[in-house]
């Protein structure tokens, strides 16, 4: 079975908010809230412990940048969640960053317990990427 997140770097290229040699940040296709993004290593790894030291540094740098950018755009401190554990649907390591104290997307909340997820539209994903990318500055 092909890994969706291994292909996401190519498939989601137009909506990538940030990337370096090891990781990228992109809006999630099934957002729980507006401003929900994922940090994804480019190389397939299942867990944080599977990353090299350099990849782990890049992963946490991108996560911190995403937290700052989401906070600036949505005005609340974001949540940071690695893999989603029991809710995990992807074998490829990923972290979620999403605004904490904002409303759930209506359609997503109504769909809990129902097979199938509500995808954001291409327009919604592009708007999310554009809104967050504005605040995404990297100073090495
Ligand atoms: Zn993968």
Give the key terms.
140 residues, alpha+beta, HIT family, subunit A, five-stranded antiparallel beta sheet, 4 helices, binds zinc ion
Which secondary structure elements does this structure contain, and how are they paired or packed?
Layout: H1 4-11, E1 18-19, E2 23-27, E3 37-41, H2 53-74, E4 78-82, E5 95-99, H3 106-110, H4 122-133
Antiparallel strand pairs: 1-2, 2-3, 3-5, 4-5
Description:
The protein has one domain: HIT-like (HIT family, subunit A). The chain is an alpha+beta fold and 140 residues long. The chain is globular. It has a 5-stranded antiparallel beta sheet with strand order 1-2-3-5-4.
Helix content: 25-40%
- Main beta sheet: strand number and arrangement? 5 strands, antiparallel
| Fourth-tier CATH superfamily name | HIT-like
CATH class: Alpha Beta
Mean pLDDT: 86
CATH architecture: 2-Layer Sandwich
Number of helical stretches of at least 4 residues: 4
- The low-pLDDT segments are none
**Number of strand segments:** 5
CATH topology description = HIT family, subunit A
Number of domains: 1
Order of helices and strands: HEEEHEEHH
**What topology, given as strand order, has the largest sheet?**
1-2-3-5-4
Instruction: Measure the end-to-end span.
Output: 38 Å
Shape: globular
Secondary structural class: alpha+beta
The fraction of residues assigned to DSSP E strands is 15-25%
Cofactors, ions and other ligands in the entry: zinc ion
Radius of gyration: 14 Å
């Amino acid at each position: 079975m092909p890994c969706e997140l291994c292909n996401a770097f190519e498939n989601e290229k137009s909506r990538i908010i940030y990337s370096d040699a090891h990781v990228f940040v992109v809006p999630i296709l099934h957002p729980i809230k507006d401003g929900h993004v994922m940090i994804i290593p480019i190389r397939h790894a299942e867990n944080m412990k599977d990353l090299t030291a350099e990849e782990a540094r890049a992963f946490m740098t991108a996560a911190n940048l995403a937290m700052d950018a989401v906070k600036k755009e949505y005005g609340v401190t974001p949540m940071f969640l690695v893999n989603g554990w029991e809710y995990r649907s992807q074998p490829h390591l990923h972290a979620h960053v999403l605004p904490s104290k904002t409303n759930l997307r209506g359609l997503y909340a109504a769909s809990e317990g129902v097979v199938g997820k509500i995808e954001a539209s291409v327009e919604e994903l592009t708007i999310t990427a554009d809104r967050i990318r504005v605040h995404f500055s990297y100073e090495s």
